[in-house]
Design goal:
- The chain is an all-alpha fold.
- It has one domain.
- The protein is 82% helix and 2% strand.
- It contains 13 helices and 2 strands; from the N terminus they run H-E-E-H-H-H-H-H-H-H-H-H-H-H-H.
- A hairpin with a 2-residue loop joins strand 1 and strand 2.
- It is globular, with a radius of gyration of 24 Å.
Length: 403
């Protein structure tokens, strides 16, 4: 039903925006010396809208237990944890191909129709069904928490079976919401990247300098592309390790409470819930300092030391690599989670079987990928571009001290 809602809302948005575009956009207009038309702008919006819908549908296919990819991951649990991890990673990598091609096609079409302005309009098109996408995304944690409450209070098995079905659907819808966010982040960052290059070029021209060149044969641009491409992987490593540290602290606290507070296992003692919440909160705040410094510091240091061209290379590299990594991480995590749910529904031995134990390990590995690293890569992609645009005058005037 939620997928039908997404399709219907996209169709309605496409029809409505046709009339709004004709009303608000001139039939023909000039921008930066180029002639564009209102129908071209509408085509850009439509390209983004269709790309967003395609990303959502493809994400649903790769992360839903009703389709072959997740069932294949579940069946790999027959031979243990290792094959489950291998199949889950393979699914994530494969699932990033078609969505990325859809996004690339929308960029090409919108660029041909209305230049970089068209790319910005395409990002609006992808966000045209944002309300539905957010609704779909919010459904996931609601269903998940309902299942957790049902299990904690010991409700009958039928209640838990129903919440498991809802939770499984919620995992898929959450992945769809993340796919929308990633696609929109890529298009938005590309528009910001173009704004950064344009702003820097205009500032250089005002100072009487040479025209800004982003030539791939320029060694600074080429090397900075490599630097930008590794940033998402370093960022992901930092966030994954942060989850591991927080989990270690939490496990140590739970062990301490079992040893020092009598009656917890029997249900007569009261655990110290507040301390567990405090550990999670402290870890969340503390462990995000280093990734935040990485996001904000890299373009600033690069621009100050090597100039505008190097910043452009870093932005382009992180944009291309970060989007792929974000999609694959989110989809791998969602697939592992739903593979476990599919087994718990009574397939392949059900709960307590060796296959289920292997699936639980895969789900545990996938949680930080789909809930931490994947979504947070959107921030890396967008914030780097925003900071670079804001500091473009500084880079032009004071940057490149080593060049």
């Amino acid at each position: 039903a939620l997928m039908k809602l997404l399709i219907i809302s996209s169709a309605i948005m496409g029809v409505v925006m046709y009339f709004f575009t004709n009303m608000l956009i001139p039939e023909s207009f000039e921008l930066n010396g180029e002639q564009y038309s209102s129908m071209g702008v509408y085509g850009c919006f439509l390209a983004g809208l269709i790309a967003g819908l395609a990303v959502g549908l493809l994400t649903g296919y790769y992360t839903s237990e009703n389709y072959a990819p997740v069932q294949e991951v579940a069946k790999s649990c027959e031979t243990g944890v290792a094959t489950n991890i291998i199949y889950g990673l393979a699914l994530g990598y494969k699932s990033s191909v078609l969505p990325y091609l859809c996004i690339a096609a929308s960029i090409f079409i919108s660029w041909e129709l209305a230049g970089m302005y068209g790319v910005a309009i395409a990002s609006l098109g992808m966000l045209g069904t944002l309300v539905i996408a957010l609704t779909i995304d919010a459904y996931g944690p609601v269903a998940d928490n309902a299942g957790g409450i049902a299990e904690m209070v010991g409700l009958e098995k039928e209640v838990r079976r129903r919440t498991d079905i809802l939770d499984s659907a919620g995992n898929t819808t959450a992945a769809i919401g993340k796919g929308f966010a990633i696609g929109a982040a890529i298009l938005t960052s590309l528009a910001l990247f173009a704004a950064f290059i344009t702003s820097a070029s205009n500032l250089i021209a005002e100072d009487g300098g040479e025209a800004l060149s982003m030539d791939l044969l320029d060694p600074i641009v080429y090397v900075s592309l490599f630097v930008g491409a590794v940033l998402p992987f370093l960022f992901t490593a930092m966030t994954m390790k942060s989850v591991g540290k927080a989990a270690f602290d939490m496990i140590e606290e739970v062990r301490r409470q079992f040893k020092t507070i009598p009656g917890i296992m029997e249900g007569t003692g009261q655990p110290d819930y507040a301390e567990c919440v405090a550990i999670s909160t402290r870890a969340a705040l503390r462990e995000m300092i280093a990734p935040g410094v990485l996001i904000m510091g890299t373009p600033l240091v690069t621009g100050f030391l090597f100039g505008v061209e190097a910043v452009g290379g870093v932005l382009a590299g992180s944009l291309v690599a970060g989007g792929v990594l974000a999609i694959s991480s989110s989809n791998s995590g969602g697939a592992w989670d739903n593979a476990k749910k599919w087994i718990e529904a009574g397939n392949m031995g059900g709960k307590g079987s060796e296959e289920h134990k292997a699936a639980v390990v895969g789900d545990t590995v996938g949680d930080p990928l789909k809930d931490t690293s994947g979504p947070s890569l959107n921030i890396l992609i967008k914030l780097s571009a925003i900071l670079s645009l804001v500091f473009a005058p500084f880079f032009v005037q004071y940057g490149g001290i080593l060049m």
